[in-house]
Design a protein that fits this description.
The complex is a heterodimer of chains A (304) and B (702). Chain A is an all-alpha fold and 304 residues long. Chain A is 71% helix and 0% strand. Chain A is elongated. Chain B is an alpha/beta fold and 702 residues long. Chain B has 25 helices and 24 strands. The longest helix of chain B has 18 residues. The two termini of chain B are 52 Å apart. The relative contact order of chain B is 0.09. The chains are: A mainly alpha (304), B alpha/beta (702).
């Protein structure tokens, strides 16, 4: 049958002008473009993204970029101060600090994002469930999360590492476990608002399964906060990876991890050997700042 | 008045407000778009001027422009604004601020957000006086006097409270008190009663009218509600696409309209007594022109049935059609012969006479719901029993908080009723919770929600929204789904080409059509309509009501129609149920309920509604606020506000819902003949019982 409406008795031409059909497709694209434009126009975001990009390049092509072998020790050249050959100097066993900083980006940029993704997935699911069901489920989980969050991250990390043994995966697991409840709280708050929307009732009135309502109906509407939360947590995750390594509970030697490098050399600062500590520390700082700047930009773009 | 508009001479009389050829533009994505296209109007001292038009016409922009208080992206591009004879555009910013703080007051739609939630009412009102340099305790005294003026019976008590502790109507009184406290030359009211119940609206309007008399203030009254304008204003301007298309005294404009837009607007409203079986409502075709669109001719040309070539090319001048009545239409003589947009033939077919004897599609017995709140029992719905026949419409009316929506959710199973409640579909009892009902039961009972923005998932396409309903409720898939989708969108007059759009890209009326299509996807026997048109403009409302009436006849669907708009309820309903504090106060055929003898509460509800037709009944004032569900009054729950209060029996004994005539039930100690006699005249006014409802001890005279 044809979809022409004009032949209906009393057809009401309201349709004719409806949304002018030509604007239908462009409007959505315009909204996306607007968001992208906001992001790109935000200096904070662009600068942050450039910093992060530098480190991502280092993580991927580190071995090619690094001027020296980051693992090659040279007892004769230990603790050389920065000079033409070694712009960042050498560490206590004569390894090139610059090369180690460049290659060191890889570990942290693998561990932190994986941990954050896991935390986001798990936390979002948890937030959806607690926000949607409220009542007893929510109360129990929320109190549990409160209790859990009362313990400092480092303590939880230590406990896990002592029982599981230090490894990359332990670090990922610990961070995911600690961040998931925090993300869950934010998502829960958003879901509390969404569940009162009548499209949820409408879904119930179609006999939809709860999983469909949670993940197909509500989830797309809370993606904004989830995205923002992801980028913010990524910054924290980087810092946590570095902290755990610094404490010696994360990535193990001789990996050129930044936190580990600081850990191995901070005792030497008093002897005037500042460079093997300063440069990895700066690397951590710039990466965290870069990610946080991106997070700021994204949060602003997603604000309604 | 016409001369004032026609001449561009500087203002000599001190009109409270004088706009001359005012053009306002908004900057949208870098381009200036025209929003007001040469608005001219003048408000004489002490005069009340109403501005009507659909949303997006520029009503609020006109008000903001009059204060030169446009948003950052707005500007006055030409024309002039004079307030009390002073040229606003020539003033310095400081002078404009002084003018705003001393001479002009504004009252907005939402009183709760206009008040500061963290400051006591008394301090907020007193601040107005403090700004005038009046000292502390005197300011408090004056604030108290002002609150008395807006008929707040316990000003001292109210002054010590916060806005959230007061009802919407009370807060609006406070806002009005603050607005009048500085004795302004001009009072602007922007949809001041739109969020309020009819009974409260009536009180607030009475108050504004009385205060206007007392203070001699000039008023600019903005509303989309023609009835309200008729009741409140001397003069009215009809605004369309940023241009005043017709202007004159309210009597002239509403009873002898000379512009097709005004004629169309007036025809959209279900007039007092109009019913679906007597004829369709007329609608206005098309849409408001886009923001800033270039319109060389008449702004209304695209939607006008009288349009001629000249309308598209030449802007109509102001035609003086007599007695200060002006119209911007080339064919103003023919305006009232505007051809109808919809056929006037009623859609309702003769329903079989025995329809009421058919097995009811839904029947309820003793449905009740108690919520538990901080250890209190809140009885939201109490003992509701009714039946609904196939193809019948039961209108559900009552003030907000009367339990209309809760009742709907109980029937749908979205809220589980208390133990002992019985809901039967087609004679078969169903589970209280939706999850325990089978597919057949779920699809036979559907709903159209009030707010389509919340009811349609904004991330889904229209196709997915309707398609999913078809798949889940009817098991329709694949090619069949496309066909059904097409049929369904066609039956709600939704252009199938828009099916890939997201809800946010559609207008309110179109969104509501999608919601209706979704409700009808499962071929339901009963559809609950929860205020389906209250978020829409009148012309769109008319189209939706026509559609609902048509679908009902086509599918023999029963409606449970919830609305606070009694004209709309009357238009669509066969029977009407009146709720108060979760209890059924009256139930009967629409015509029976809408005429005496009727329950005293129904009587009061009806008398609160203003009518364009001027069918003004004596107003019955409901004193006091709606009592709290947590602590309902003893005996008859309505006794604290009842205009026909008998005496102690009302306080001690709750009346049963009794059948007073065949098919006509009410919950009142009076019987039918007593009320018939009594309701021939208005009740004597009861003294104020007090601000907070449910308050006992106040002894009304017997």
């Amino acid at each position: 049958m044809t979809a022409s409406t004009s032949d209906l008795p009393g057809a009401d031409p309201i349709l004719a002008g409806a949304v002018r059909p030509d604007t239908t497709s462009t409007e959505e694209r315009a909204a996306q473009r607007e968001r992208l434009r906001l992001l790109l126009r935000s200096k904070v975001f662009v600068v942050g993204a450039l910093i992060v990009l530098v480190w991502v390049v280092c993580a991927i092509f580190g071995n090619a970029i690094a001027p020296n072998d980051p693992f090659a020790t040279d007892p004769l050249k230990d603790l050389t101060s920065p000079n033409g050959t070694y712009p960042f100097g050498t560490d206590r066993v004569g390894r090139d600090v610059l090369s180690r900083v460049i290659v060191g980006a890889r570990d942290i940029l693998i561990v932190a994002p994986i941990a954050t993704i896991l935390a986001t997935v798990f936390g979002t699911a948890l937030g959806l469930v607690t926000g949607y069901f409220r009542g007893a489920v929510d109360n129990m989980l929320s109190r549990f999360i409160d209790a859990f969050l009362a313990l400092p991250t480092v303590i939880i990390g230590l406990l896990a590492i002592v029982s599981l043994g230090p490894s990359r995966w332990t670090v990922i697991l610990v961070i995911a476990l600690v961040f998931a409840p925090i993300i869950a709280r934010t998502v829960r708050a958003a879901v509390l608002q969404e569940r009162e929307m009548e499209y949820v009732s409408a879904a119930q009135l179609r006999n939809e399964r709860t999983t469909y309502i949670l993940f197909a109906e509500i989830l797309p509407n809370v993606m904004g906060p989830v995205m923002v939360e992801f980028t913010v947590r990524l910054g924290y995750a980087i810092f946590t990876v570095a902290t755990l390594s610094f404490l010696g509970f994360g990535i193990q030697p001789p990996a050129p991890d930044w936190g580990l490098q600081v850990f191995e050399h901070y005792g030497l600062i008093s002897g005037g050997y500042w460079w093997p500590v300063l440069f990895p520390a700066l690397a951590i700082a710039t990466l965290v700042i870069g990610v946080n700047m991106m997070a700021d930009g994204i949060a602003k773009a997603f604000e309604r | 008045m016409t001369q004032e508009l026609a001449t561009s001479a500087p203002v000599s009389t001190a009109n409270a407000l004088e706009l001359e050829d005012l053009e306002v533009e908004y900057k949208v994505r870098g381009a200036w778009k025209k929003v007001l296209r040469g608005v001219s109007l003048s408000i004489a001292p002490g005069e009340s001027y109403g501005l009507v038009g659909e949303s997006g016409c520029g009503k609020s922009t006109a008000a903001f422009a009059a204060l030169n208080y446009l948003p950052r992206n707005g500007r006055v591009s030409s024309g002039s604004i004079h307030v009390a004879g002073k040229d606003l555009l020539a003033m310095s910013d400081a002078d404009v601020r002084t003018l705003r703080s001393t001479q002009v007051s504004m009252v907005y739609q939402n009183p709760t957000s206009a008040l500061n939630p963290t400051i006591h009412i008394g301090d907020q009102v007193a601040e107005v006086f403090t700004l005038q340099g009046v000292g502390g305790s005197e300011a408090q005294d004056r604030a108290k006097a002002m609150l008395q003026k807006v008929q707040i019976s316990d000003p001292t008590g109210v002054m010590g409270r916060y806005p959230h502790q007061l009802s919407g109507g009370m807060n609006q009184r406070v806002v009005i008190a603050m607005a009048l406290a500085k004795d302004p030359t001009l009072l602007m009211l922007d949809e001041p009663t739109t969020g309020l119940d009819a009974t409260v609206e009536a009180e607030v309007l009475d108050l504004v009218a009385a205060l206007r008399q007392e203070f001699g203030t000039s008023v600019l009254f903005i509303s989309h509600n023609l009835d309200v304008i008729l009741r409140m204003c001397d003069k009215v301007g009809v605004l369309y696409a940023g241009r005043v298309v017709e202007q004159g005294t309210v009597d002239e404009v509403f009873h002898n309209p000379r512009h097709p837009y005004t004629v169309g607007l007036l025809r959209c409203i279900p007039r007092a007594g109009a019913r679906k079986d007597q004829g369709r409502l007329d609608t206005i075709p098309g849409f408001l022109p886009g923001l800033g669109e270039t319109l060389p001719g008449c702004v209304f040309a695209d939607r006008c049935a009288l349009v001629q070539d000249v309308c598209r090319t030449d802007e109509p001048p102001l035609y003086d059609v007599g007695a200060g009545h002006i119209s911007r239409c080339h064919f103003h003589e023919q305006a009232q012969d505007l051809p109808r947009n919809t056929s006037p033939v009623a859609v309702t077919e003769e329903r079989p006479a025995e329809s009421s004897d058919r097995v009811p599609v839904i029947s309820t017995r003793n449905v009740r719901k108690t919520f538990h709140q901080d250890g209190h029992e809140v009885r939201a719905v109490e003992d509701i029993t009714f039946t609904l026949a196939p193809g019948e419409t039961l209108g559900l009316v009552g003030e907000s908080g009367s339990g209309k929506t809760t009742l709907a959710r109980l029937l749908l199973g979205l809220t589980t009723p208390d133990e002992g409640s019985v809901v039967e579909l087609d004679g078969v009892p169903v589970a209280g919770a939706i999850g325990k009902r089978d597919r057949e039961q779920v699809r036979s009972l559907q709903i159209v929600f009030q707010n389509p923005d919340a009811a349609l998932n904004r991330r889904f396409s229209i196709k997915r929204i309707i398609g999913r309903a078809l798949t889940m409720l009817m098991g329709t898939r694949g090619e069949q789904l496309d066909t059904r989708l097409r049929d369904l969108t066609h039956s709600v007059r939704f252009d199938v080409r828009l099916i890939r759009a997201k809800p946010t890209q559609l207008s309110g009326g179109l969104k509501q059509r999608v919601a209706i299509a979704r409700a009808f996807a499962g071929d339901p026997k009963i559809v609950v309509c929860d205020e389906p048109t209250s978020a829409l403009d009148v012309s769109v409302q008319a189209a939706i009501l026509n559609l609902l009436a048509e679908l009902q006849v086509k599918n023999d669907t029963a409606y449970l129609f919830i609305s606070h708009d009694l004209g709309v309820v009357r238009y669509l309903s066969d029977r009407i149920a009146v709720l108060y504090l979760g209890r059924l106060m009256e139930l009967g055929a629409a015509e029976t309920v809408f005429g005496p003898p009727q329950h005293p509460y129904t009587e009061a509800l009806l008398s609160a509604v203003p009518h364009v037709d001027g069918d003004e009944r004596p107003r019955i004032k409901l004193t006091g606020e709606i009592p709290s569900h947590a602590d309902p009054p003893s005996g008859c729950v309505f006794h604290t506000r009842c205009p026909r209060y008998i005496g102690d029996i009302c306080k001690t004994e709750e009346p049963e819902l009794k059948e007073v005539e065949p098919g006509h039930f009410w919950r009142c100690h009076y019987d039918v003949d007593e009320l018939r006699t009594l309701q021939q005249s208005a009740p004597e006014t009861r003294p104020e019982i007090g601000v907070s409802g449910g308050q006992r001890g106040a002894e009304p005279p017997v």
